[in-house]
Description:
This protein is mainly alpha-helical. It has a domain at 34-168: NusB-like (N-utilizing Substance Protein B Homolog, Chain A), CATH 1.10.940. It is built from eight helices and two strands. It has helices at residues 8-11, 24-32, 35-52, 58-68, 73-100, 111-126, 131-145, 150-189; strands spanning 15-17, 20-22. Strands 1-2 form a two-stranded antiparallel sheet. A hairpin with a 2-residue loop joins strand 1 (15-17) and strand 2.
Amino acid sequence: MCRGGAGDGAAAGQAALSGRQLSYHNFFTRATMTRRSRAREVVLQVLFEDDMNPGHSLTRSERFVRQRLNHDPALVEFALTLLAGVRHHRPELDRMLAERAQNWSLRRMAVTDRNVLRLGAYEILCTEMPGRVAINEAVELARRYGAGQSAHFVNGVLDRFLKETRQRHESSAQQQAGAAVGDEQEGAGSDPS
């Protein structure tokens, strides 16, 4: 699958290099991928395996992450933190995503899409990552690994997820502020004697 851009047309197939076939697309995306994007990609691979083989070894998953990230301590820590968070919050994430994925149940979604959504939702809810950046990272994963419409689907669901999460957070903050004002007024109106 080609990503749009200058020079992708004919070159996007395959280029011969030293007698070996090299995919231009794979070379290009690997060369420009950020370090944390690479860590998310590895986490997605493990989440995919979790879905397909629920009984696999957690130590095997950790070893896979370490090897794929060349034992880079900062990246391994980042990836394992994401992985542990998504695994821990999976039931809640699934419930929240199912509410926002109109006319789609999670079990009907492609495994890749479902796990990209889990990862993106976790980053929106539980990390310091700005919501728009988390969505963009998830859309790139969906574009790279999903079907033709995966990127649009993931963008739509996570955009709705972000908007509703912000609305709920703002509403909760307003209620808390209103309760605090009410408590102050009660305390100011009572006679201490």
